[in-house]
Amino acid sequence: MKKFVIEVLYPEYNNLYGDRGNAEYLQKKLTLAGYEVEICETSLFDEPKFISENVDLLLIGPCQEKHQLVEIETLKKYREQIENRIENGGVILATGNAFEIFGDYIEDAKGEKHECLKFFPYYAKQFSRLRYNDCSVGEFEGMQITGFKNLLSHSYGDNPYPFLTMKTGAGMNKETKTEGVHKNNLFATYHTGPILSLNPQFTDYLIKLVDNEYVGAELKYETKAYENRIKELLK
Amino acid sequence: MGKLRFLIALIVGKVSIFLLDKIFKRGTNLPGEIMLKICPDALSRFTMPKTTVCVTGTNGKTGTSNLLTHIIRNSGKTVVNNSKGSNMAPGLVTALASDCTLGGKVNSDVAVLEVDERSSQFIYTKFVPDYILCTNLFRDSIMRNGHSGFIFDKINDYLDEKTTLVLNGNDGISGLLGENKCNRVFFSVDKTERSTDVCEDTVCDLIACPKCNHKLDYEFYHYNHIGVPKCNYCGFSMPQSTYFASDVDFENGTFVFNGDKGESLVLPYQKGNFFNVFNITGACAICRLMGIDIDIIANSIEDLSSKTGRFQENKFGGVEVVSMLSKNQNPISCSQSLKFLDSTENDKDVVLLITDSNDKVHGHEDISWLYDTDFAPLTSDKIKNIYIGGSRCYDLAQCLEIKGLDTEKFILFENYDELAKEVSNNAISDRNIVIYFELYATSVVAKIKNALKEKGEN
Description:
heterodimer, A: alpha/beta, six-stranded mixed β-sheet, four-stranded mixed β-sheet, 6 helices, 26% helix, 29% strand, B: alpha/beta, UDP-N-acetylmuramoyl-L-alanine:D-glutamate ligase, Protein-Tyrosine Phosphatase, Chain A, 2 domains, nine-stranded mixed β-sheet, 14 helices, 17 strands, globular
């Protein structure tokens, strides 16, 4: 039986907006497709598994704004290894405000700047009060990708490796249609949802990046749920 | 000028309250809304009663405020509250305007005001409550509340140091409100026979230590993150509780309330609703702080327990139907309601109307909260059919399949009329029907019940 290893980074914090559903959905789908799935959860004070062992897919979910800063400080210790993973084509999916970790810095509502991993030149600015909510559709390599947003920030500046071109809703801020980051096999997006169970086609694409021989396994209602949403949102 | 503006607002408010009461015979926030338009600082212009209590928190606000009002009234004091209106500024203004002199002096002895967490800024900065009781803080509707930390800040930033906070000592989130600022009194619930060593719920909103970020240890969990958290790394733990519940008897639906002067009291809570032990203990704590006699508290709570429970039971022909309100978008509340299924033995069909039935009007629902909900009670063999209704029925069905449910049992309807017909057509005696519905789906529940009633009569 083929093994598929998923690492979930810092689940004690990165568990907002139903994002646990990404790992749950992958487990269900991959098990149906005949894989043995290992889900490894790593806490803040432990060394991530991908540093020293094979991890097929690294998941980083959304967290509270104050916890995001704590995580970034920890991840700075592994900056080089994360960069290697990106350059070597390791698969990473970062959702919600985890998108910001890879950028230049986060400016909080008081104007204070917090340095991020600086792989990309975009930067985030937090709002002072209201959150940004959205349900939108963007395009990636001919696929319509849908997701929800619940944010206390938007990102600005250069984004040379955008992931999605939005058809509805905001990009990484309200003034742009480009959203997220896609470099090699790193996918980072403000969308949550959980984005994988909302987008079965994209999930299959992601699994194929790990195992080219993967033949999709379909859950009973996933296509209908997906098609209904796209239809309603593009109406 | 401000005074005159307030007087005009108050006159307009009082007249509109009188008229709306005559026409609609029910509460509305409209008078408060108009008053705030005329006089934006109206809330700060009332002369508040001698004692003002605000009740806030994610779950249990309404139940706790109602109970508090009831006990205080039984103690002989008059109480103004906003139970007929909203828990935001216009609702509070309406309530106070209906109970004050033209000079703005509130007539009642005590104000018990339920306050929406997100409205703190517009309320605690306008008057200083003597007490704020926070029942708990959890993740809640994503669109409105974001996450528990966001809501914590929304309350914490606007607390006044003269307010005494009455806090849930089993909640490591809301229990940190007003730290190093306000006088804080804690209430908690002792370990029960149902406490667990590990968190058995999908969601735990406090896994890492709020002080040092290391993983917390819990002496035990009541449910979700409610329990006794302690940090073995930095030594963080919750302060000692002054008031606490002990000896929870799940069989008989009673517990013992313990006060700070050695007094104790056996009290009933609505059996099956463990949340209520916290709500009652919190309300009793406030009453004791206000000096209300322990016997008056005892009698008041007995009164209330005889009232109707949180769900409705009907019988049509041989079919028993239970309908339970499940707060839309609130995974904690929804999970707790679903636990009811574990407590019943009969075969049953379950109808899920938990996603926004008004999705088309409210906007495309963010369904991610479903993944934070515990659907394990739906895996029981006793459950024969699972009806799933509404425009988001495929999303819910997919989530349920991911969570391990058998899709063979699913019957999906986007259209509620067709669902009602099918539920009634398939109903057989000796099989109960349990309906979970969100607030806006009340009319769908009525449709199902009507269809069952008609079938029963034919």
